[in-house]
Amino acid sequence: MEVKLISYSQPVNSDGDKNPLSIAELAASVCYDSEPTDTYRIVKGCKATGHRSVLEHISFTFEVSGVSRALLAQLSRHRHISLSVQSQRYVSMDNFDYVNPFNGEDADVFNNMMADAANNYRILKEYHNAANENARAVLPNACCTKLYVTINARSLIEMSHLRLCTRAQGEIRSMFQLIKSQVATVCPELAAWMVPSCEANPKYPFCPEGNRCCGRHPKLADIYKTVEK
Fold this sequence. Notes:
This protein is an alpha+beta fold and 229 residues long. The chain has helices at residues 21-31, 41-48, 69-75, 104-127, 132-135, 153-163, 170-184, 188-193, 220-228, and strands at residues 2-8, 59-68, 81-85, 144-152. Helix 1 crosses helix 2.
């Protein structure tokens, strides 16, 4: 898997400040008829009180490769993102790469299954004159794809709350860890907000997963029990 930051929002008249948070600071300052600050105090205050709409003025575009179509299905469920994905209609998937989520003997079994899928794809094309768009019906969810995705800062934070959770599937969790590291190079403040939902409020961490809690932080129900005592 590889994730590259391709572009991000920057102010036209920046006076050297390329941090995309300066755009959100400008937008937030309009709301309160205030002067924008060089510490991003206004937008940080908005974020802290739940007024995240000003963060939608910032967007990031990433090039992602070496991920599975299963990951793509999860990613596409999120709103307010733009996707451009490698087409299996027009691009031949002969000898396709794939993501193997297993280890040990299970990984070997899975590799054999992928070899069978690749062979079935080849048979459809070579012996049945199937077009790519029809032969792709036998391709597995593990088949690798490439994509470009553009996400605004608010969505990045909210998606990270879900996808950086230890209960998220390993592949998409790894992708968001890489996205976070890329964002940190240009906007460390935003990267610091990209945390699992249990740490969305660092002063009062709690797990919203109920019976699926990993134990990293106490469940909200357990906190209330403590308060009641």
